[in-house]
Write a structure and sequence with these properties.
There is one protein chain. The protein is α/β, with parallel strands linked by helices and about 425 residues long. A six-stranded mixed beta sheet has the order 1-3-4-5-2-6, sandwiched between helices. It has a two-stranded parallel sheet with strand order 7-8.
Length: about 425
């Protein structure tokens, strides 16, 4: 059976420091002030004792499991825990079989970790018992629940977002670690300047990683002549390495970084654009960054500087041929270039408006003048009658190009940038009217 009944660990069993230091009250939980502060909604729910179905959403190491356990202790229901990465329907049935027995006369509080790994059928198997109140569900996920949780479960649950911990929050957890180690083992611990600050930043808002890092430094520290265990910066860097990177190529972090990179270039912030590019490069995800950079050249620079497309394409091609680590150079040039280019979304807005009409069924027959010339003389009511613009002054002649039902439709608006305004002035002169 995969579920775990909460019980005390035996005295002789190894217990990770992160588990030993797990907060026992909401006041001991670091961070999450927006939901666990004095007036926070989740704290008020826990204090009330009336626990609804809830989904905890956020990165690893931010307190989701800990808060679920604390809340469970305030109810008169036994806690059952399943991890969706290893559990299946049989494990769900085992929990259900306990209902209305002496093991769970008042139902159970089920903590379902990583619910995103349960398929629709597995999630639906809980629905009846959530509906009748025999199971109160607290689920956690590192992925956006609105994408990965079945709608019927979602509609019966309240979603709470757990945020990455700040370095100051991490420091509070570190202080508890050092105090415990020195009190429990009587150890003297010496810290090289900046070690705790470095670990706080390098662990990417994950308290568990920070605690595990300190535990590893403690267990491998070499005592000095006075018996003091030294935590050095070199050792801290060796054990953290890329710990600050929360990244999954198929997860929320991937798409969040993509979005942040695109929006930073669009927002003309080269520093932010370089930061998010660096995140991609650090994880080795070259293709994801290249695709987003290419898109920005057309979507955000567009007709304000049409040469952005071939310039950026050349940078991307160079990056893909070079590979990492050298690829960082042409890609850095590309994002700086795009961030500092003039911006225009006139092309994007124009095609979006045209596609909206097409999706709404606004099409209509193509004007006879624009149809293929091979149709002439095959039973059509008249010949094509197409006017060839190059035969007229300014290479332009008035002629209807849109279908009759859309002949007055207007999709493209000239951008306010220098390039598009020059084009607008040119065509106003040629056509002899306002555009």
């Amino acid at each position: 059976m995969d579920f775990i009944r909460e019980q005390e660990n035996s005295e002789n069993a190894y217990r990770p420091l992160a588990d030993e230091l797990r907060p026992q009250t909401l006041d001991e939980v670091v961070g999450q002030e927006h939901i666990l502060g004095q007036d926070g909604m989740l704290r008020r729910i826990a204090d009330s004792g009336h626990i609804p179905n809830m989904i905890f959403y956020g990165p690893s190491g931010t307190g989701k499991t800990t808060v679920a356990r604390i809340i469970a202790q305030r109810t008169n229901r036994p806690l059952r825990r399943l991890n969706a990465t290893t559990a299946g329907l049989a494990d769900i049935k085992a929990v259900i079989e306990e209902l209305d027995t002496f093991l769970a006369p008042n139902g159970v509080l089920l903590y379902l970790d990583e619910i995103q790994y349960f398929n629709k059928k597995q999630q639906q198997s809980l629905l009846e018992f959530i509906e009748n109140g025999k199971i109160t569900l607290i689920a956690s996920t590192t992925e956006n629940p609105y994408f990965c949780v079945f709608n019927a479960i979602l509609s019966r649950s309240t979603v709470f977002e757990f945020k990455s911990l700040s370095p100051a929050d991490i420091r509070r957890a570190q202080e508890r670690v050092l105090a415990l180690l020195q009190e429990r083992d009587g150890a003297a611990i010496g810290l090289e300047d900046g070690v705790l600050d470095y670990i706080s930043a390098a662990c990417g808002g994950d308290a568990r990683k920070s605690i595990n890092t300190l535990e590893l430094l403690y267990s491998t520290a070499i005592p000095g002549k006075d018996g003091t265990l030294r935590f050095t910066m070199a050792d801290a860097k060796a054990v953290t390495q890329r710990s600050s990177m929360h990244y999954d190529r198929d997860g929320d972090q991937h798409y969040d970084i993509l979005s942040a990179l695109m929006k930073s270039m669009r927002g003309s912030d080269p520093d932010a654009a370089l930061h998010y590019l660096a995140r991609f490069l650090e994880t080795g995800d070259l293709l994801g960054a290249c695709r987003r950079i290419l898109c920005s050249a057309s979507e955000d620079i567009g007709l304000a500087y049409p040469l952005a497309v071939p310039i950026v394409k050349a940078c991307v091609d160079s990056a893909l041929q070079l590979g990492l680590p050298e690829a960082r150079l042409p890609l850095a040039e590309a994002v700086i270039f795009l961030a500092t280019c003039p911006k225009s979304n006139s092309g994007y807005m124009g095609i979006a408006a045209a596609m909206a009409d097409i999706k709404a069924g606004k099409a209509g027959p193509i004007p006879r003048e624009l149809q293929n010339v091979h149709a002439d003389g095959t039973g059509f009511e008249r010949e094509q009658g197409y006017l060839y613009p190059h035969d007229y002054p300014g290479h332009w002649v008035a002629q209807q190009y849109l279908p009759d039902s859309l002949k007055d439709a207007h999709y493209y608006e000239y951008g306010e940038n220098k390039t598009e305004q020059a084009a607008k002035k040119y065509w106003e002169l040629v056509k002899g009217k306002d555009l």
